């Protein structure tokens, strides 16, 4: 095979982007379905997303939760209040601004998230059950690249270009 032919068969960024856009929705659908199955009656899906956001962003505000969920401030406030009453989240007044609440997941909330995520990991592992070790290594390598490219600080940059 000529060098030119080898170059043309190499994937480029545009091809990778097209495949990512084609594949990720199916992966997300499977992950969401698994999460729903593993949440059970403990939380609604929006409450789970809220709890997960707070766990990833300790000290966040209700406004940040609303922005993440794409809901109004009163809706986010009501959702956070339910999580506080259910003893999954602690809301404390900010030392810097007494009008602001800082949200944190407490031990029972973390335990609930861990249980739900463990169930989802089992489901996802089962989905990879027929893959051989070379395929699994390729998936891990691709996921490492995705993590590097879409780390939180890069997500804002990528989103700003869309």
Could you list some keywords that capture this structure?
single chain, 162 residues, mainly alpha, Arc Repressor Mutant, subunit A, two-stranded antiparallel sheet, disordered C terminus
What does this structure look like?
This protein is mainly alpha-helical and 162 residues long. It has a domain at 39-151: Arc Repressor Mutant, subunit A, CATH 1.10.10.10. The chain is 71% helix and 6% strand. The chain has helices at 3-9, 13-39, 45-56, 62-69, 73-85, 107-127, 133-149, 152-161; strands spanning 89-93, 101-105. A two-stranded antiparallel ribbon has the order 1-2. Helix 3 packs across helix 5. It is globular. The two termini are 38 Å apart.
Taken in chain order, the helices and strands follow as HHHHHEEHHH
> Rg, please?
20 Å
Bulk shape: globular
What share of the residues does DSSP label as strand, in percent?
5-15%
Q: What's the main sheet like?
A: 2 strands, antiparallel
Q: What strand order characterises the main sheet?
A: 1-2
**Mean model confidence by pLDDT:** 88
Structural class: mainly alpha
């Amino acid at each position: 095979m000529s060098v030119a032919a080898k170059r043309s068969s190499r994937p480029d960024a545009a091809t990778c982007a097209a495949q990512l856009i084609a594949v990720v929705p199916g992966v997300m659908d499977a992950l969401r379905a698994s999460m729903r199955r593993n949440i059970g009656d403990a939380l609604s899906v929006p409450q789970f997303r809220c709890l997960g956001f707070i766990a990833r962003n300790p000290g966040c505000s209700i406004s940040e939760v609303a922005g993440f969920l794409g809901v109004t401030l009163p809706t986010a406030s009501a959702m956070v209040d339910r999580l506080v009453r259910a003893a999954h989240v602690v809301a404390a007044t900010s030392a810097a601004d007494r009008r602001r609440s800082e949200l944190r997941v407490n031990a029972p909330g973390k335990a609930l998230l861990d249980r739900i995520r463990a169930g989802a990991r089992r489901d996802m592992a089962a989905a990879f059950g027929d893959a051989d070790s070379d395929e699994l290594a390729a998936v891990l390598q691709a996921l490492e690249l995705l993590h590097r490219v879409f780390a939180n600080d890069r997500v804002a940059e990528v989103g700003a270009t869309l």
